[in-house]
Amino acid sequence: MSLRRTLAVTFAAATAVSIAAVPAAAAEAPSIQAIRQLASGLKQAWSIDFLPDGTGLFTQKDAKTISRIDKAGKVTTVQTIPGVSVTAEAGLLGIAVSPKYATDETVFIYYTTSSDNRIAKLKLGQPPTPIVTGIPRGSQYHHGGRIRFGPDGYLYAGTGDGQNGANAQNKNSLGGKVLRVTTDGAAAPGNPFNSRVYSYGHRNVQGLTWANGQLYVSDIGANKLDELNKIDPGKNYGWPTCEGPCTTAGMTNPVKAWPTSSATPSGLAAYKGSLYLASLKGGTYKLDLNGNGGKLWTNLGRTRDAVAGPDGQLYTITPGALYVSDGS
Fold first, then answer.
1. DSSP for 200-261, written as a single string
2. Is the pTM of this model over 0.70?
3. For position 34, what pLDDT does the model report?
4. In angstroms, rounded to a whole number, what is the distance separating the alpha carbons of residues 177 and 171?
5. Residue 17: is its pLDDT beyond 60?
6. Residues 286, 325: Cα–Cα separation, whole Å
7. Half-sphere exposure (CA, 13 Å, Cβ side) for 267?
8. What angle do CA 197, 200, 201 make, to 5 degrees?
9. Could you tell me if 316 and 300 are in contact, meaning their C-beta atoms sit under 8 angstroms apart?
10. How many whole angstroms separate alpha carbon 324 and alpha carbon 328?
11. Tell me: the pLDDT tens digits for 139-171?
């Protein structure tokens, strides 16, 4: 049964926001949630990652910018990315810092152009060099956009079906997939189809994280069910034949599904033994690895991303602001 929480919020300038969770089932509830706003006034903030010194780099979808945020919350624009096309869901989306940044000084971004979605690499302040192009884009929706480096050192990307469900089942299309590539954009060694495709049958993947070495992703459904999926290489996750669990042969069911009216999931983080699933219907889900749990911070409205920071804090992104919390 889903938790229902009444969240009481007290805001004070330059102090933490204390959120008391009142659960329907006390055993599943956190006690007190402390969350603090680091930055506000953002223009569709979308994703964050961190440099080796702990400085955050985040994207703003509509502003088409990469910005820095220091530990005190000071935001500085680094650069605007040329050629970015902005629609309801399109724009400058994911960002991932190279795990070898100390030597290669490289950052990776996922963004929409007038003709496709693509992944590019750059040195901060310099123009991007595309390494993966031809990811389908829709006129407005289903762009995917999350990129993360996995524990194996390869770059993973969640893509959307580009408003064409057939792309998700077509293993020759980059749409509706989880991709796994090298830092040059080539298919990573060991991929199941000798291509960039790692898993398929997705609709709009906007969350990627690893827990105990296992990849989990969030996938936005159409008008029935959203999904949390445990990803194994080569598996078919069903879209558009299945939305949520089904009994069709060859399709892999999600770990958990929620009505699209309550979830519409975006970013996903593993933090202190739990999964934190951002929700475009408001708040963030705190879940165990089977998807059981309930929402926190519904007062924040839409949450776009959740990321475990190198400073031991959980970072939460909303379209207009960036927060840190203890997540417990």
1. E--SBEEEEEEETTEEEEEE--SSSEEEEEEE-TT-B--TTT-SSS---TTBPPPSEEEETT
2. yes
3. 80
4. 9
5. no
6. 13
7. 28
8. 160
9. yes
10. 12
11. 999 999 999 999 999 999 999 999 999 999 999
Residue 303 is encoded by which pair of tokens? 């949450």
320 CB contacts (<8 Å, ≥6 apart)?
A: 40, 41, 42, 43, 45
Find residue 118's DSSP bridge partners.
111
Burial 32-47 (b: 16+ CB within 10 A, else e): ebebebbbeebebbbb
Report which secondary-structure segment, H or E, holds 104.
helix 101-104
pLDDT tens sequence across 180-203: 999 999 999 999 999 999 999 999
Q: Which residues contact 138 (CB under 8 A, 6 or more apart)?
A: 89, 160, 161, 162, 163, 164
Phi, psi of 56 (to 5 degrees): -85, 145
Q: What is the mean predicted confidence (pLDDT) over 22-50?
A: 71
Name the nearest CA neighbour of 145 among 92, 187, 97: 92
State pLDDT tens for residues 88-146.
Answer: 999 999 999 999 999 999 999 999 999 999 999 999 999 999 999 999 999 999 999 99
Single-letter amino acid, residue 295: K
Task: Check whether the bond before 189 is cis (ω within 30° of 0).
Answer: no
Label residue 126 exposed, middle or buried (CB < 10 Å: 0-12, 13-18, 19+).
Answer: exposed
| DSSP output for 41-84 | --SSEEEEEE-TTS-EEEEETTTTEEEEE-TT--EEEEEEPTT-
pLDDT score of 44: 97
